[in-house]
Amino acid sequence: MENFSEVLSVFEEGIARDFPQRSPFFNGETLGFCRYHASNSGNYRAFSEAVCVTFDQEKHSAFFKWVHALQDCHLIKETLPPHEKVVAWIREKFLSPKA
């Protein structure tokens, strides 16, 4: 979680420094390749549920605001797998004993 928090801090600082007026990743009109793949960050809720961790949304409010905006996009809503399936996949992938 500490490393993840550091990565989010770098992300937020870079966006604030390089794009002070608005985020280049979500303009409300179109969903580009980068935004589509970054939308998988929205699975943080599934990850949190699967491995019982809590993300500090206040500490990284800019990042989570961006993720929530992405999740409201109709294309993302249509293409992301159901929450329950993501939780099950994470548990199987990361918590199941390896054979």
Helix content: 55-70%
| Strand coverage percent | under 5%
Task: Give the uncertain stretches in residue-range form.
Answer: none
Q: Could you give the order of the helices and strands? A: HHHHHH
By CATH, the architecture is named Up-down Bundle
Under CATH, the topology is which?
A: Glutathione S-transferase Yfyf (Class Pi), Chain A, domain 2
How many helix segments? 6
What's the alpha carbon Rg, rounded to whole Å?
15 Å
Tally of separate domains? 1
State mean pLDDT (0 to 100 scale). Answer: 77
N-C termini distance = 27 Å
InterPro entries: Glutathione-S-Trfase_C_sf (IPR036282)
Model description:
This protein has 99 residues and is mainly α. It has one domain: Glutathione S-transferase Yfyf (Class Pi), Chain A, domain 2, CATH 1.20.1050. It contains six helices and no strands. The two termini are 27 Å apart.
Short précis:
With 99 residues, the chain is mostly helical. The chain has helices at residues 2-18, 33-38, 44-51, 61-71, 74-79, 83-95.
Secondary-structure map with pairings?
Elements: H1 2-18, H2 33-38, H3 44-51, H4 61-71, H5 74-79, H6 83-95
Tags for this model:
single chain; 99 residues; mainly alpha; Glutathione S-transferase Yfyf (Class Pi), Chain A, domain 2; globular; Glutathione-S-Trfase_C_sf
